[in-house]
Design brief:
The protein is α/β, with parallel strands linked by helices and 308 residues long. The chain contains nine helices and 15 strands. The protein has two domains: 150 residues, HUPs (Rossmann fold), CATH 3.40.50; 125 residues, Rossmann fold, CATH 3.40.50.620. It is globular and about 70 Å long. This is Universal stress protein. It comes from Ferruginivarius sediminum.
């Protein structure tokens, strides 16, 4: 791993106050952004810079150069290897320089990193860097523009890094008057499970700054060990003690999948950020995601904070 440059250090936010005016001890101060040579990367950078500016956070941008490893019996001519590496280094330089220019213009504290790793280890590299950040910012996979080794990057990093991730749609975050709007109207997908609980806690800095927070429980089952008699009431009370005003919604919808219901409610409420748990596990090295997680990752229209 090679560090290329670092930007100026910004002063700490003296107040760290949320949008409701109450002080907060929780904040994102160290963000990791995965950058690549996709068309969607520019929108991801835009969202990351907006979040870093809002939080007064340091933003580290990581570019991974994937290398193909041939079987032991195969051998690539040296001139082809040199040409391939040269192209990869030029692509990395262009993307990193573009990020640096935008970060300087935004006035955020930043640094850039490049890593040369096997193409099938890119997710492991991003996950390793993510462990030393408050939040990792990744991009939704665009099926028409997916670099080698990154098809399952979001899933692998989310389930393996131990940190929350912010996944930015390849269409970008919402905008108002040309500026990114992120976290003004937040929706929380709540099922009272471990993953959702983790996601709510990890997203607390955003929830405290939000103007509106809707907590959505789809087909909640009342039980003492799960939702309780009034689904969403307990977590809403917990959030209220952190200065977050929450509106709880219950939806009984049995003819539509939970993921599709969540996406529909996001549009209805005009939410610009979704918070949800990421459900999944590895089965014989094959990633298996929960239905709602898979649906949201494939069809998301707003950025999503996920935790596992």
């Amino acid at each position: 791993m090679k560090r290329l440059a670092a930007g100026p250090k910004l002063p700490e936010d003296p107040a760290d106050t949320g949008g409701n005016g109450r002080g907060s001890k929780m904040a994102y101060k160290n963000l990791l952004l995965h950058i690549d040579n996709t068309k969607a990367c520019a929108k991801r950078i835009e969202a990351a810079l907006a979040l870093a500016t809002r939080c007064g956070a340091h933003l580290s941008a990581l570019y991974c150069m994937g290398e193909f490893q041939l079987p032991g019996w195969a051998d690539m001519p040296q001139h082809l290897t040199r040409e391939y590496l040269s192209r990869e280094e030029e692509r990395a330089r262009e993307v990193v320089e573009d990020f640096e220019e935008k970060a300087k213009r935004a006035g955020v504290s930043y640094e850039t990193r490049t890593a040369r790793v096997p193409v099938n280890a890119i997710a492991d590299e991003v996950g390793m860097h993510a462990r030393y950040a408050d939040l990792a910012i990744l991009g939704q996979v665009d099926p028409d523009d997916t670099p080698e080794g990154t098809r399952d990057l979001v899933e692998d990093v989310t389930l393996g890094c131990g940190r929350p991730v912010l996944v930015v749609p390849y269409i970008g975050a919402a905008k108002e008057n040309g500026n990114v709007v992120l976290g003004r109207k937040v929706m929380v997908a709540w099922d009272a499970g471990r993953e959702a609980t983790r996601a709510v806690n990890d997203a607390l800095p955003m929830l405290q700054k939000a103007e509106k927070v809707d907590l959505l429980a789809v087909n909640p089952v009342k039980s003492q060990r799960r939702h309780g008699e009034n689904p969403g009431a307990d977590i809403a009370l917990h959030l209220a003690r952190h200065g977050v005003k929450v509106e709880v919604q219950h939806l009984e919808v049995h003819d539509i999948e939970a993921g599709d219901t969540i996406l529909s409610r996001l549009a209805d409420e005009g939410s610009d950020l979704l918070v949800m748990g990421a459900y999944g596990h590895s089965r014989l090295r094959e990633l298996v995601l929960g239905g709602a997680t898979r649906s949201v990752l494939e069809h998301m229209t707003v950025p999503v904070i996920m935790s596992h």
